[in-house]
Amino acid sequence: MFSTSIQLFSTTPTQNLIEYSDSLARNKLIFASIAAYAEKPELCLEKGFQQAIVRRQITVLCDVDLNDTCSGYTAVSPTDKAILVVFRGTTSNQQLLVEAVETVVGNHAPWPAGGVVSQYFHDGFFKMWNTGMKDDFNTLLAKYPGYQVWVTGHSLGGSLASLAASYISNSSLTAPNSLLLITFGQPRTGNATFAWAVDRDVPNAFRVVHSHDPIPHLPGKGHHGYWHHKSEVFYNKNMGGWVICEEDESEKCSDGQGTDTDINDHLHYFNKDILTLGYSNCQNTTGST
Fold first, then answer.
1. For 95, how many CA atoms within 13 A lie in the half-sphere containing its CB?
2. Does residue 98 carry a pLDDT above 90?
3. Residues noted as catalytic
4. What DSSP line would sit under 171-183, residue for residue?
């Protein structure tokens, strides 16, 4: 079932596609995502990047009642000629429950590019974006013209990353063919119209899913209209092989796993313990196997 061959999804002939790169996801962007959990993200970034520079890390209150926070940062990697926009994932079991419940039964919010998304994700993104992330991103764009923009995040951070990539492209802040979205363990974020808008505006979008990770199945497919955008990169248990499913939802990838899930697959990507590494500023070597 699994293959190490690269497949591309179809799009208009004028699009210059960025192929999915296992090496980029495995050796660079996973560390960028882990860095979002760290107090000193630069210490995690240096594990995958040469001389990457963090512009600023921004943390906001994303749920007043439970006092939980959303966080992200911008950075630049001159070696890769890439600007990074990165979002943090879940920081507690309580917040994980909030994500699942509020996304399923909470309010929807209209999305500028089309469709509706979870109010929770919508508000978290715009609070960060308008608190300084937008200004930092525009500063980096002006200082490093011609650089690609890489957007990434794990768990909740994956949903926030998908919103960021959609917003950046739909607002014409950068060209779609210079924009790359790779997320890890991303839950469903909006409805089918939103998914179509991401497919249209972010042709280089890849949702990495580790085997039996349960979070990409939340909320349930079609429940309250929730639907994934493409393309899914589905890895086996040891993350040694993968398949790419070009559809928004495909039984050939994680949709075909049914209810057989394992939360440890969500907490480990590319044999790295996401939270252990992040909380230790990537200094705890037991978090990497």
1. 19
2. no
3. 155, 213, 266
4. TTSS-GGGEEEEE
Helix 93-105 to helix 119-128 angle (10° resolution) is 120
Single-letter residue type at 194: F
The pLDDT-based confidence of 90 (bands split at 50, 70, 90) is confident
**Taking the CB of residue 196, how many other CB atoms lie within 10 A of it?**
18
Q: How far apart are CA 186 and CA 207, in angstroms?
A: 7
CB 164 within 8 A of CB 180: no
Phi and psi (nearest 5°) for 59? -125, 130
How far apart are the C-alpha atoms of 236 and 249, rounded to whole Å?
A: 18
Which tokens in the block code for residue 174?
A: 């950068």
- Helix residue ranges per DSSP H, 117-177: 119-128, 134-143, 156-170
**What are the structural domains of the chain?**
22-287 (3.40.50.1820)
Residue whose tokens read 């092989």: 241
Are 165 and 189 a contacting pair, CB within 8 Å?
no
Using one digit for the tens of pLDDT, what is the confidence trace for 74-84? 999 999 999 99
Helix (H, G, I), strand (E, B) or coil at 1: coil
Query: What are the tens digits of pLDDT across the range 231-258?
Result: 999 999 899 999 988 777 766 667 667 6
